[in-house]
Design a protein that fits this description.
- One of its GO terms (biological process) is photoreceptor cell maintenance.
- This is NXNL1 protein.
- InterPro entries: RdCVF, Thioredoxin-like_fold, Thioredoxin-like_sf, Thioredoxin_domain.
- The chain is α/β, with parallel strands linked by helices and 207 residues long.
- It has seven helices and seven strands; from the N terminus they run ββαβαβαβαββααα.
- Strands 2-1-5-4-3-6-7 form a seven-stranded mixed sheet, with helices on both faces.
- It is elongated and about 85 Å long.
């Protein structure tokens, strides 16, 4: 899926507005994931109603508060906002893992033509190889919520990535599935150590 944006600049929706432009970074952000292209505009009444639903949908599938492992899901915001300020203001209310095209990027129009987007809001759902799963999933997301991701996952035939925990999009940190085991072992070791110290102190007092 990264091939769709080869040679293009994507912006991470974090405080620093980091750019994702190398092939390696694009691969980390988009490969082996179901990709949503969200065509919307902050000034559109229907988009204002739908955007909170999409935000909740995305967060419940990717945020560590809800899931131990982030689902294999990516999103690129393709705006029809009237100004760069409108786009920036809208993105501030959206998840940090969202990506977007720069406001002035003409590639947005190419994407609209490629996926026959004539109205907003539109959410195009793509397999990792670029094939279309859904031309517009707005109704599906509104009606089913996160449950519809399972259908997309099966359709996309994603490579199982269960050995990876949720990614931290700020620093691209990747953690091993053994982390929880190591943390548990650390806690057990600390408890054993504390008990041994307590027993030693008791033995010393009794002697």
């Amino acid at each position: 899926m990264a091939s769709l944006f080869t040679g293009k600049v994507l912006v991470v929706n974090n405080r620093d507005q980091d750019e994702v432009e190398t092939e390696r970074e694009l691969g980390r952000a988009l490969e082996n994931k179901v990709l949503l292209l969200y065509f919307g505009a902050a000034g559109c009444p229907r988009c204002r109603r739908f955007a909170p639903l999409l935000r909740d949908f995305f967060v419940r599938l990717t945020d560590e508060f809800y899931v131990e492992r982030a689902s294999q899901l990516g999103l690129v915001y393709v705006s029809r906002d009237a100004t760069a300020q409108q786009q920036a203001a809208f993105l501030k209310t959206m998840p940090k893992r969202w990506l977007s095209l720069p406001f002035e990027d003409k590639f947005k129009r190419e994407l609209e033509l490629r996926f026959a987007v004539s109205d907003v809001p539109t959410v195009v759902v793509l397999k990792p190889n670029g094939e279309v799963i859904a031309r517009n999933a707005v109704e599906e997301i509104s009606r089913m919520g996160p449950a519809c991701f399972r259908n997309w996952q099966e359709a996309a035939e994603l490579v199982d990535r269960n050995f990876l925990l949720a990614e931290d999009f700020d620093d691209w940190a990747r953690r091993s599935i053994t982390d929880p085991i190591r943390r548990l072992k650390y806690k057990l070791d600390k408890r054993t150590e504390a008990k041994n110290e307590e027993k030693t102190e008791q033995d010393a007092e009794s002697s």
